[in-house]
């Protein structure tokens, strides 16, 4: 725990250094607003993925669930469904995608890395079958403003307010509930947790289901933010989400991590990407930086694992 606290403190320090050294353009209210929009989907998906990773598993299909959700929104909207009916259906479908991952991992005993690489392709393929390479973009402004306008009277984007509310919920779930204690116990030693009476399969199954549901919610946010439903929305986003979670100090081996650290990791990753964008750095370099952060972030949990 001390190692985690030191890592989280370092992340906060890094964030302060970035904010102070990046220039006034970075600290402007307009840029901070767009920074909040840019990290909205990453921040949302990172919340349940933290639980999955702490439990000793991984879910690489989250960005594909986002894309499938976006495609489903477009198809149902073209079928003249009202958005009030579309949105809950999309979240349920996302939860079912996560439940399928959970079933394959917990009931059939398949490794989550292999399973979610497979469903990454499966869900993205289903999105392409549903919508093809077309885009649906005629959504009502009353909905798309959710992804582009601040909360009235503030400079906070609506998606970040949604993230803050869910962060409280997931923080309580992970750090102040019997479910959270079970997650940490399973991640530390699944066999010992099973002998202690913890329902390992049910705990992991719920974690995957939550990841699918929130990924679908992120798909809704993404679609409304760009006012465009596309099958390729969010492609590659899983790299940034996993990087943020591991950068936040969550051990890739499971059993260690805090939601506060993940939130700090999301902010650091978002701030670095924003600074690079402000300096007209090509997209390819952004991908390289994200990959390097992913590699570097693995070292902290390994080091923490070696601490007495």
Give descriptors for this structure.
disordered C terminus, ABC transporter involved in vitamin B12 uptake, BtuC
Mean pLDDT across all residues, rounded?
A: 91
CATH topology: ABC transporter involved in vitamin B12 uptake, BtuC
Order of helices and strands: HHHHHHHHHHHHHH
Please state the second-level CATH architecture: Orthogonal Bundle
Rounded to an integer, what's the Rg over CA atoms? 19 Å
Low-confidence stretches: 304-308
What is the beta-strand fraction? under 5%
Give the terminus-to-terminus CA distance: 10 Å
Please state the structural category: mainly alpha
Overall shape: it is globular
Helical stretch count?
14
Helix content: over 70%
GO cellular component, one term: plasma membrane
Membrane topology: Multi-pass membrane protein
InterPro entries: ABC_transp_permease (IPR001851)
Subcellular location: Cell membrane
């Amino acid at each position: 725990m001390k190692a985690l606290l030191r890592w989280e403190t370092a992340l906060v320090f890094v964030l302060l250094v970035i904010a102070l050294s990046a220039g006034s353009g970075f600290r402007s209210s307009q840029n901070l607003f767009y920074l909040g929009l840019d990290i909205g989907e990453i921040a949302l998906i990172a919340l349940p993925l933290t639980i999955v990773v702490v439990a000793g598993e991984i879910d690489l299909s989250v960005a594909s669930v986002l894309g499938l959700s976006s495609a489903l929104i477009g198809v149902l909207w073209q079928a003249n469904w009202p958005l009030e009916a579309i949105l809950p259906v999309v979240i349920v479908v996302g939860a079912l995608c996560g439940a399928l991952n959970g079933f394959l991992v917990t009931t059939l005993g398949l490794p989550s890395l292999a399973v979610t690489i497979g469903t990454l392709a499966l869900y993205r393929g289903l999105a392409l079958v549903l919508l093809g390479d077309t885009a649906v973009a005629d959504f009502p402004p009353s909905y798309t403003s959710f992804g582009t306008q601040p909360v009235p009277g503030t400079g906070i984007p609506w998606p970040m307010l949604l993230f803050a509310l869910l962060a409280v919920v997931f923080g309580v779930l992970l750090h102040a509930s019997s479910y959270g204690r079970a997650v940490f116990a399973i991640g530390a030693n699944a066999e010992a947790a099973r002998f202690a009476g913890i329902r390992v399969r049910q705990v992991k199954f719920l974690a995957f289901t939550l990841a699918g549901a929130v990924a679908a919610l992120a798909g809704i946010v993404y679609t409304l933010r760009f006012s465009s439903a596309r099958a390729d929305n969010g492609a590659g986003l899983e790299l940034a989400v996993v990087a943020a979670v591991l950068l936040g100090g969550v051990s890739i081996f499971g059993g260690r991590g805090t939601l506060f650290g993940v939130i700090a990791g999301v902010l650091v990753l978002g701030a670095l990407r924003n600074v690079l964008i402000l300096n007209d750095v090509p997209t390819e370099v952004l991908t390289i930086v994200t990959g390097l952060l992913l590699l570097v972030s693995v070292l902290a949990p390994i080091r923490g694992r070696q601490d007495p």
